[in-house]
Design a protein that fits this description.
Length: 451
């Protein structure tokens, strides 16, 4: 039995940073990873996909070159092998950086293998038993594959396996019209594939407000993506080299299928029952506001605790636990302002409540919207699709949430993230003097629309 001060299971976007802090503080730490350091974000998530999104945007801009008075000479084509290589390079550089950094730390041992609890303070990995008074779980999540009839007979793709593609699909069907599905749908359309999106919900990105879902649909349909919502019965069969996709009685002959119907936590083969760690019905580890599980000495960070499904929320979990354990602070997950982006182009930047959530809260809600066609930066770049919207409490003047669907919306939303984190009222911001010509310059005008 090997004795440590702390054991980390999974090297995602929280564990390695906390492991490093502890090792630097002189604690003896084991970091167990069954695949690659950096987890989903580095190896099969944010980094490769945003690199691919950038390639797809380059193709899109090149096709629109004439709109800017620029000639590119001949028809734009995409070398999928070079596109894939570029994404792999970004991933490999990041992974290599982690291997060098973590591998060079004193007091930190990296163990490659699947870890499983055999007691509340003991795990087994690669046949060795390791014990520690503190165990941190950062095991992430994986794609959910619904039991569609015939799915096992076809070589469907997931968000991970599609990253290995180095040829262009003739026709890509995307099942699931949310973050993963929409990013890949637009990307492959821009690479040159025919793309069909099938979403079970009544609209795309069903968690967003209806006006946002509808604008997203317009953006994607405008690029020639076929969008079908409210789809309930999906089945598959083989048709020679192709796949016959049947959805609500309509058959489509497609060359590839991407299943992007959500993710589930990697908590089903972890021995959590043996350790006595509680999960909810969907397998998410139950934690309190300080990310402690019901078992003293065991914490859960990142996607597996169900309090966030993003790299920045996982990293913030690290910050919370590090502050509480190493810096004598009292940080809590409930003080986090929820924010994220959807990386279609133009992107969707989001923070806080949707309008629907704000109205359901029973507050006296005021809303202001402005189209991106009012933004100088958008006009100058000939990219005026989308709009911005802010939702506030008319009584307290609190900003409850904001959305920027439009060029640079993922960056401009940070004005709202910062304001909400600082609990600034909208009246304080209405007379800010922004820089011209930026996307953010319309924000004071947007806020003046609240009163
Ligand atoms: C296609 C895609 C695109 C995304 N894009 C974005 C984006 O643009 N922005 C964003 O914020 N988020 C994005 N995400 C989400 C983001 O990748 C995750 O939220 C982020 O990686 C945080 O995950 P984590 O720290 O919980 O664990 P992960 O990064 O998932 O890492 C968990 C690690 O644990 C390991 N592991 C699991 N079980 C065991 C075990 N029993 N023993 C040993 N090791 C184990 C796994 O191999 C893995 O390496 C995207 C996700 C996907 C799939
Ligand atoms: N930009 C980002 O930050 C980013 C990008 C990609 C992924 N992610 C993370 O990955 C997570 C998973 O993303 P996701 O898009 O797979 O999941 P999701 O849960 O966001 O969306 C899944 C979609 O599939 C639909 N769906 C479910 N079952 C279906 C069925 N049988 N037929 C048709 N449609 C069906 C759902 O209605 C939903 O719209 C997200 O929660 C997010 O945190 C983040």
């Amino acid at each position: 039995m090997r004795q440590y001060d702390a054991i980390f299971i999974g090297a995602g976007q929280a564990g390695p940073f906390l492991a490093a802090r502890m090792a630097e503080n002189g604690l003896k730490v084991a970091l167990i990873e069954r695949k690659f350091l950096g987890g989903t974000c580095v190896n099969a998530g944010c980094m490769p996909t945003k690199t691919l999104v950038a390639s797809a945007r380059a193709a899109h801009v090149a096709r629109r070159a004439a709109d800017f008075g620029v000639s590119v000479g001949r028809e734009v084509s995409v070398d999928m092998s070079a596109v894939r290589k570029r994404a792999q390079t970004v991933t490999m550089d990041a992974r290599k950086g982690l291997i060098e950094w973590l591998g060079g730390l004193n007091n930190l041992t990296i163990i490659y293998g699947h870890a499983r609890f055999i007691a509340a303070d003991t795990v087994v990995a690669n046949g060795s038993e390791l014990t520690a008074p503190r165990i941190f779980i950062n095991v992430g999540a994986r794609p959910v594959i619904p039991t569609f009839p015939g799915i096992e007979d076809v070589d469907y793709l997931t968000s991970a396996s599609i990253l290995e593609m180095d040829t262009l699909p003739r026709h890509l069907a995307v099942i699931g019209g949310s973050y993963i599905g929409l990013e890949f749908a637009q990307m492959y359309r821009r690479f040159g594939s025919e793309v069909t999106v099938l979403e079970r919900g009544a609209r795309l990105a069903p968690r967003e407000d209806e006006d946002i879902s509808s604008a997203i649909r317009d953006i994607l349909a405008g690029e020639g993506i076929a969008v079908h919502t409210g789809v309930s019965e999906i089945s598959f069969s083989r048709k020679g080299e192709d796949i016959l996709l049947n959805a609500d009685g309509t058959s489509r002959d497609v060359s590839h299928v991407l299943v992007a119907t959500g993710r589930r936590p990697n908590t089903d083969d972890l021995g959590l029952e043996t350790a006595g760690v509680e999960t909810d019905a969907r397998g998410y580890i139950q934690v309190n506001d300080r990310l402690e599980t019901n078992v003293p000495g065991i914490w859960a960070l990142g996607d597996c605790n169900g309090h966030g499904a993003f790299t920045h929320t996982s990293y913030n979990d690290f910050e919370i636990v590090a502050a509480n354990l190493l810096d004598s602070e009292d940080r809590r997950v409930s003080s986090r302002v929820a924010a994220y982006a959807l990386y279609i182009d133009p992107p969707l930047g989001r923070v806080g409540m949707t309008e629907k959530e704000a109205r359901a809260s029973g507050r006296n809600v005021v809303v202001s919207t402005r189209p991106m066609s009012r933004v100088g930066r958008a006009k100058e770049r000939s990219e005026t699709l989308g709009f911005m919207k802010v939702v506030a409490d008319a009584d307290t003047k609190e900003i409850l949430g904001a959305t920027i669907l439009g060029i640079e919306g993922d960056e401009a939303i940070h004005g709202f993230i910062d304001a909400m984190t600082a609990r600034t009222t909208f009246t304080d911001l209405q007379w800010a003097v922004p820089v011209h010509p930026t996307v953010s310059e319309l924000i004071p005008t947007l806020l003046r629309g609240l009163s």
